[in-house]
Amino acid sequence: MGEVELKVKLIEYTPNPEKVVAMAAKLCYSPSDIDDIMHGVTEKDQSKFLQKLVDMGHLSTIEHVNFTFGIEGVSRSLLAQITRHRIASFSVKSQRYVRAGNDGECFNYIIPSSIRGLGDEYVIRFKQQMEEIQKWYDEWVDILGNTGEDSYQDARFVLPNAAETKMILTMNARELLHFFRLRCCNRAQWEIRTLAKEMLKEVQKVAPNLFKDAGPGCLTGVCPEGRMTCGRAKEVREEFLGMEAE
């Protein structure tokens, strides 16, 4: 236990997500019954149609498909950010029911990239601080009677934002596009931006047409940040176009 790294896995998603979206959209504009629509969607390549839907902003149809991710190696600080995306479902490892640390080992934690960039001396200092916090936590668990959740739920108050959490996260495709637009931006905090990019890579594998132009706002137009822009739109576009080619 100790320092951990980000892990993202797409563990489940709506079967044939692009087919489902195409069916939903065609139903809106067709007098045909559902069986005929299903047959027509199956017989034809829907990539151009799906691109047209996204370009038109007819996004209610993509709410029919969901994507579920298993996420590990993220901080409680990130948890506070990602749960602001309210059109989503979260199941999160509990600090109330699960003891931090185990058999004298330190709890898992995330080291900020800025601290890592300072060099080994500062990384070692950070790790020592995490180990000291583990001692405080263990001390409070004992003082509070070491009775499981009744002790953990209050001893956890000394744990830092750096403490790792794990979660299962589900979003529909429309919310994912919104999430990527905000969190893939250079102005997003580094940890959630890294997570968003990994999630984007996962969904592009199974629904490439839906997420073809997904990413920060500057990817397909003018930077929406205005005066707060990072000023590196060209560099960002090259980065995300490179992701599609991988």
Shape field: elongated
Give a short account of the largest sheet: 4 strands, antiparallel
The overall average pLDDT, rounded, is 92
| Backbone CA Rg | 22 Å
Oligomeric description of these chains: single chain
Explain what you see.
The model has no long low-confidence stretch (mean pLDDT 92). Helix content is 47%, strand content 13%. The protein is α+β, with helices and mostly antiparallel strands and 246 residues long. A four-stranded antiparallel beta sheet has the order 1-2-4-3. It is built from ten helices and four strands. The chain is elongated, with a radius of gyration of 22 Å. Helix 1 crosses helix 3, helix 6 (120-143) crosses helix 7 (149-155) and helix 8 runs antiparallel to helix 9.
Set down the secondary structure blueprint.
Elements lengths: L6 E7 L3 H13 L4 H10 L3 H10 L9 E10 H7 L5 E5 L20 H4 L3 H24 L5 H7 L8 E9 H11 L6 H17 L26 H13 L1
Briefly characterize the structure.
The chain has helices at residues 17-29, 34-43, 47-56, 76-82, 113-116, 120-143, 149-155, 173-183, 190-206, 233-245, and strands at 7-13, 66-75, 88-92, 164-172. It has 246 residues and is an alpha+beta fold.
Q: Tags for this entry?
A:
246 residues, elongated, four-stranded antiparallel beta sheet, 10 helices, alpha+beta, single chain
